[in-house]
Amino acid sequence: MAETNPQKVFAPWEDPTAVPLIRFEAVTKKFGTFTAIDNLNLKIYRGEFFALLGPSGCGKTTLMRMLAGFETPSEGAIWLDGQNVAPIPPNKRPVNMMFQSYALFPHLSVWENIAFGLKRSDMPKDQIGERVQEMLRLTRLEQFAKRKPHQISGGQRQRVALARSLAKAPKLLLLDEPLGALDKKLRQETQFELMDIQEKTGTTFVIVTHDQEEAMTVATRVAVMDHGKLIQVATPAGIYETPNSVYVADFIGEVNIFEGAARRISDDMVEIDYAEGKAPLRAVTSEALAPAQKVFFAVRPEKILVSHQPPHERANEVKGKIVDIAYLGNISTYRVRLETGQMVSAQMTNAKRLARRDFTWEDEVWLSWTETAGVVLTR
Ligand code: ATP
Questions:
Q1: What distance in Å separates the CA atoms of residue 20 and residue 79, rounded to the nearest whole number?
Q2: Dihedral of the alpha carbons of 205, 209, 214, 220, in degrees to the nearest 10
Q3: Is 29 in contact with 77 (CB distance < 8 Å)?
């Protein structure tokens, strides 16, 4: 078993016999006449690191607060480990919520902060000491046990909050923007720590974040929400490579959308007329399409090759002029205006040193991509 990567084989959502830890059943949450969560169904499995993504106001926090017990559904039921949680108050649920502010007690030491919840439970005293020690070890805070929160760094405070949240071994930990207070570099390091700790404890994590990259990095599955509904729930790769809608494609990373009428030319291939007088684009899709159905061909910038000459070997080749270059060190993004006026982004890795770069502003270039480089979407 040693050679198998547990991350790869862990996919209970694909197993029809797997029993979910959390089940939302037709859950609606209304605030007055406003519907914050709209008839939502969702299953989250034990051991998952589940991320909720979506624009501000889409209902992420409301969903979490219902799990924690701070809000109750207006309709529908939420099941946690086989129990309908509606009548269970927050402090009796096997759930903990870690807030962005961490809410550490400033006058208590790191050790006391972690022990706080345990002391209020019915855990025997000697076991409390052991448990705190275990949490300190897990979060690599042993040498800071005696310090107060203001005597440690932001990243360390974040780990104290995590240790405290996990001390009572909840079945479910809810994390609301857990890394929001950290700078980018520390944030990235902490993402890996968080994944490590999640894996070691086997606790199910549900995280709300504004940062798509963060969700993609840490999560087993990502739910993309809009207006109180789930638009797509899939693995990070699934969300990125096979989005189910323009909304999801556009929400995660950058994407070019070619809009046009599709014509099936074979079982798996369509031609898309996207501009008058231009050769149609070709795309592989098995989607059932009506004749001349309006579709959106979504192509990621990194799937598009930029060249001075037409490559004559790829299914899709269009001509344009470079109007903008964003140099990011390891990669450059070229913004190209096609003859149709449409702007297209193409990304190339910078293998060569800057002075020997091939493309510059105002260059006439060809953009090309294969028939499998994008996805055909109908909404
Ligand atoms: P953000 O990313 O900005 O935190 P969110 O996706 O977490 O947003 P929620 O906080 O879940 O969004 O809010 C969803 C919607 O419900 C918003 O339009 C919000 O104004 C509304 N809402 C949330 N709580 C209440 C409340 N107690 N009373 C009335 N409306 C509320």
A1: 9
A2: 30
A3: no
pTM above threshold 0.85: yes
pLDDT tens digits, residue range 236-268? Answer: 999 999 999 999 999 988 999 999 999 999 989
33 lines ligand 1 (CB under 6 A): no
**Averaging pLDDT over each range in 122-136, 219-233, 274-288, 308-322, which range is the top one?**
219-233
- Residue with CA closest to ligand 1 atom 3: 56
- Atom 12, ligand 1: which residue's CA is nearest? 57
Query: Which domains does the chain carry?
Result: 12-94+170-247 (3.40.50.300), 254-377 (2.40.50.100)
Pocket test of ligand 1: the residue of 37, 60, 97 to mutate, having most ligand atoms within 8 Å of its CB, is 60
| Amino acid at the residue 180 | G
Q: How many angstroms separate the CA atoms of 347 and 369, rounded?
A: 12
Provide the pLDDT for residue 354: 56
Which pLDDT tens digit goes with each residue over 37-64?
Answer: 999 999 999 999 999 999 889 999 999 9
Testing ligand 1's pocket by substitution, the residue of 30, 38, 58 carrying the most ligand atoms inside 8 A of its CB is 58
Scan for tokens 């919840």, then name that residue.
Answer: 117
Alpha helix segments (H runs only) across 30-183: 60-68, 110-119, 125-138, 154-167
Residues 60-109: tens digit of each pLDDT: 999 999 999 999 999 999 999 999 998 899 988 999 998 776 789 999 99
